[in-house]
Amino acid sequence: MTSSPGGQPPTSQRVDRRMGARKPPAVDRRMARVATPEDKRRRLYFIGLVVALVALIGAIGGYGYYQEFVAPTKVLAVRVDDVSHDQGDIVTRLRVQQAAAVALGELFDYGREPFEVIQEVAEAEIVRRAAPVFNIRVTEEDIDGLLRQRFLPRVPAGQEFPPGQLEREYNENYGNFLERSHLSHAEYSSLIEEEIYRGMIRSELGNLIPDVGEQVEVQWVRLLSLIDPEVINNPGPNAIEIRRRLLVEDFGAVAREVSRDQGYADSTGYVGWVPEGAFPHLDVVLFGNEDKAPLPLEEISEPVHSLEGVFILRVIGGPEERQVSGLMREALKDTALEEWMAEQIILGTEEGWLEINNSSELYSWVVDQVRKARPNVTPPAVGQGSPLG
Fold first, then answer.
1. pLDDT at residue 159, as a whole number
2. Domain co-membership, 125 together with 200
3. Domain-embedded: residue 172
4. Are residues 275 and 317 in the same domain?
5. CA 215 distance to own-chain centroid
6. In 3D, which of 141, 140, 92 has the Cα closest to residue 114?
7. What three-state secondary structure class fits 86?
């Protein structure tokens, strides 16, 4: 055997001995440990724990989503006989009204509209329920007629249009409105149907109004309600200050300057002959009751606050029996419908065919859902009217 210099074994032998004595690499020991049954059990247990934790988090999130977005939609809002509307229906209707208001450049009142829409839905179903009693029925022709009244272009006297042009313009006007307001034809037709039914019952109740009644001749100054946004944002002279002026200045001149009428009075505040019931919020002042005498002739009343505005009144004639004017008959029809509706709500609640659910918690939830859905659309040009009214 040949030795290397210095008496050491050959290089090949030293390498062989080192190779034979070398320990397995550390990575091999780790791989061996992973492969043990105990490690497999621990790994499966850990994976199961993670999966269970993820499932629990998902369940909590799903329950929260259900509680926040799904469960409230199923809560009853209005029931008339076997026709029910849940809170989801209320949100949908409000979103429709909100989209239409924004598209038409009108103010959507988040404080008032959500509160009133449940009442509107209840009243719409009450009107439909009562329709057979009044022997009335809304047809597709009725709905189409009102749609054309609102969207068909006005034709100046003596002017002629090519065949089919008016129809094309009607379809374009109506289609543009539906697009801007995010409404379908079915949704808007349903609102139109409600409006027609309400108008038909109002007319039927109007037939019961006497042609002659006791009336007083009235002059007034009407100011906006204190809760009107215009007053809140830009308060002017208050009713007390205006009444002081009326005591020493010409009534008509002051009315011409400050009065904000709704179509009943002329520029001087002259309303004319007013029957009892035409303006129920003013009846006690104008006609008195068992506890209070009516306003004396030519005296200026204290301000009368109501949802319709703030009124300062002067009686300049009567009382006397007179023929009811066309304008006052329309006001009496409004009163008759309001009184009939109030009676139906009381009757329905007592008899069990009417149920209205509008708690403060549901109201807050509805408002929140409607705010989240506010459409981002460009309002039309100033001056465009609303087909919703």
1. 75
2. yes
3. yes
4. yes
5. 38
6. 92
7. strand
Which residue's structure tokens are 């020493």?
248
- My answer on whether omega of the bond before 387 falls inside 30° of 0, hence cis, is no
Q: What is the pTM of this model?
A: 0.71
pLDDT digits (tens, 9 = 90+) for 91-139: 877 877 777 677 667 776 776 777 788 889 999 999 999 999 999 999 9
Domain-embedded: residue 22: no
Compute the distance between CA of residue 25 and CA of residue 175 in angstroms, rounded to an integer.
Answer: 79
Structural domain that includes position 307? 213-323
Residue 19 lies in a domain: no
Contacts of 174 (CB under 8 A, 6+ apart): 147, 151
Cβ contact 269:255 at 8 Å: yes
Q: Determine the 3-state secondary structure of 214 from DSSP.
A: strand
**What pLDDT digit, counting tens, does each position of 248-269 carry?**
999 999 999 999 988 999 999 9
Determine the Cα–Cα distance for residues 53 and 59; give it in Å rounded to an integer.
Answer: 10
Q: Looking at the structure, tell me whether residues 242 and 303 fall in a common domain.
A: yes
Q: How many domains does the chain have?
A: 3
Q: How many residues does the chain have?
A: 389
Helices (H), the chain: 11-21, 26-34, 37-65, 87-103, 113-130, 140-151, 165-181, 185-206, 229-233, 239-248, 251-258, 283-287, 326-351, 360-372
- Asked if 282 and 246 sit in the same domain, the reply is yes
353 domain-assigned: yes
To 10 degrees, what angle do helices 185-206 and 113-130 make?
Answer: 70
Burial of 15 (0-12, 13-18, 19+ CB in 10 A): exposed
Please check whether residues 353 and 298 belong to one and the same domain.
no
Task: Give the integer Cα–Cα distance in Å for 368 and 361.
Answer: 11
Written as six digits, the tokens of 243 are 């009444």
Tell me the C-alpha distance between 254 and 314, whole Å: 13
> Could you tell me if 201 and 226 lie in one domain?
no
Is residue 305 classed as helix, strand or coil in its secondary structure? Answer: strand
Look up residue 385 and give its DSSP letter.
Answer: P
